[in-house]
Amino acid sequence: MKNILVCIIIVLCYLSGEAQNKKDIREAGIRSRTELIEVNKKGITFSYTESIEIYDENGNITEKKEFDEKGDIRLHETYQYSEGNKLIKKSKISPVTGNEQKSVVFAYDTQGNLIKEEHYDGKGVINKTIDYVYDGKFKMKKTVTNNKGKIKEIKHYQYNK
Length: 161
Known about the structure:
By secondary structure, the protein is mainly beta. The protein contains two helices and ten strands; from the N terminus they run ααββββββββββ. It has two domains: 78 residues; 60 residues, no CATH class.
């Protein structure tokens, strides 16, 4: 039993040391991260940039681009934050036109809990809304509503001790 506990502690320490969180990124002054990948196909090795992430001075990711093997952008997202470092908008950008294809706007209560997501298309029209209800710190209910105000899904959360 003692050996199992020691192994668990070692794994947890390793995982926490490997994680790159906002605080670590901010304290190290990191402004971007690039992931390069090497691929071996039919005996030929080549490398390409798989993704690039840009960070603000608080360690928040502000832009992310993912690339295919040819170097074409397959995903481009931007992120905006409040003064309190809460994500307030996430946008998917067209790799072809550079225009916003869709976005999600986030709202929070005074305790910092996410209470609303508004999902927009590229023309600024709401496709769906997601509302969250909390009991203190715990999320109790999630309601998904379509662009006509019709409830599409309600999820209830239960917590047990």
